[in-house]
Amino acid sequence: MSFEYSIIKDFYDCCSVPIKLINYEFEDLCKIGYTDFFDRIYPLEDIKINIKNCKDELINTHIQLKNDINYKVIDICKYNKKIGYFIIGPFRTNHITNLINKDITYKPLTCSNYLCNLILNIYEDKLKNQDAPNTIMSPYIRKAIGYIHHHYQDEISIDSICEKLDINKCYFCSLFKKYTGHTFSYFLNNFRVEKSKELLAKTDLSLLEVAFSVGFNNQTYYSIIFKKFTNQTPSQYRSSMLLKE
User: How far apart are CA 228 and CA 242, in angstroms?
Assistant: First the structure.
């Protein structure tokens, strides 16, 4: 698990509000809690405008869209001038839902500043326990993770990634393990399994369709990998989610 991903995972585990880390070119570095719907409503242009118009040295701004869809933008240049911004949200501040925001986590407006403090406290805490050279992720690994996030449905191999990055395969594998704590294959399969959980819980797709949708080329292998990471078969996971409704 990368340093940055471990931060946003701890945050998400605490408050269940989606969060992502983006660079200064507004590209995703890592994210958690996002769905296809959240990706569609992600207000990239609003975020760019707010950052451009913000005169504070350290940006900490609140963005509220129609239908009570809210985001917080936090600049982390104080800790690492080479990364970018935490984007917290979407979350809603009104406990009354509508058809648009019914799947969005509710957090009272008074909590919004605490969300910012929480993510920065987590960052500071983890920073204290990291060796300084390891707190800045290799650009090769950042690009590889970004590629997985955007192309997990496609056929991906270490060889193809190394070719795209123009990097030696053995060196890439050692870097990936150093910065994420896992092999490339483990990281890719885990990400695909997490994506498949969303489809199992929220769609009526068959297991074969789910497998293909997240990049596995056959249902049997998908089921084996899914059980390896969750101790459940895809069918068992889907049944357990239905019982919670």
Answer: 21
User: pLDDT tens digits for 104-163?
Assistant: 999 888 787 788 888 888 888 777 665 444 445 678 888 899 899 999 999 999 999 999
Give the span between the Cα atoms of 150 and 133, in whole angstroms: 28
47 and 130, same domain (yes or no): yes
Q: Which of 134, 169, 199 is the last residue of a domain?
A: 134
What is residue 245's DSSP assignment?
-
Residues spanned by the domain of 237: 139-244
Instruction: Tell me whether residue 143 is exposed, middle or buried, using C-beta atoms within 10 angstroms of its C-beta: 0 to 12, 13 to 18, 19 or more.
Output: middle
Token pair for 158: 């270490």
Per the structure block, which two tokens stand in for 187?
Answer: 């990281």
For residue 179, give the 3-state DSSP assignment.
helix
92 secondary structure, DSSP code: B
Alpha carbon distance 241, 187 (integer Å) = 24
